[in-house]
Amino acid sequence: AQLVESGGGMVQPGGSLRLSCAASGLTFSRYVMSWYRQAPGKEREWVARITTFGDRINYADSVKGRFTISRDNAKNTVYLQMNSLKPEDTAVYYCYGNDQVFTKFEYWGQGTQVTVSS
């Protein structure tokens, strides 16, 4: 099983990016999915979380109102729409999945770089 992120890049402050995380080799609809990020020299921090069928969503205070997490279980993909980006959003963004039935199964993606700079 694996998670593969895409959609990162460089954007100016105030711009937008949409990250995708495609899952394979697992029963995606059993997985709570989250996005994390890690800036240079800092610890990895949680960004957003969505439950198996999208009925509960939570955000870190630092991104609330600017980022939107969503998922498409038919496509085995979770998304992170990032608007009004700030330089402090610069980080490697990772998706993470945790099986809610067999809770020992958890996976991380390889990460995608997001750089916000003028």
The geometry reads as globular
Low-confidence stretches: none
What is the helix fraction of residues, given as a range? under 10%
Task: Find the structural class using helix and strand composition.
Answer: mainly beta
Q: What's the order of the H and E elements?
A: EEEEEEEEEEE
**Termini gap:** 38 Å
- Overall mean confidence score, pLDDT: 97
Round the Cα radius of gyration to an integer and report it. 14 Å
Number of helices: 0
- What is the oligomer described by this structure? single chain
State the major sheet.
Answer: 7 strands, mixed
User: What's the total number of strands?
Assistant: 11
What is the percentage of strand-forming residues? Answer: over 45%
Structure description:
This protein is mainly β. The chain is built from no helices and 11 strands. The chain has strands at residues 2-6, 9-11, 17-24, 31-38, 45-50, 57-59, 67-72, 77-82, 91-99, 106-108, 112-116. Strands 2, 4, 5, 6, 9, 10 and 11 form a 7-stranded mixed sheet that branches. A hairpin with a 6-residue loop joins strand 4 and strand 5 (45-50). The mean pLDDT is 97.
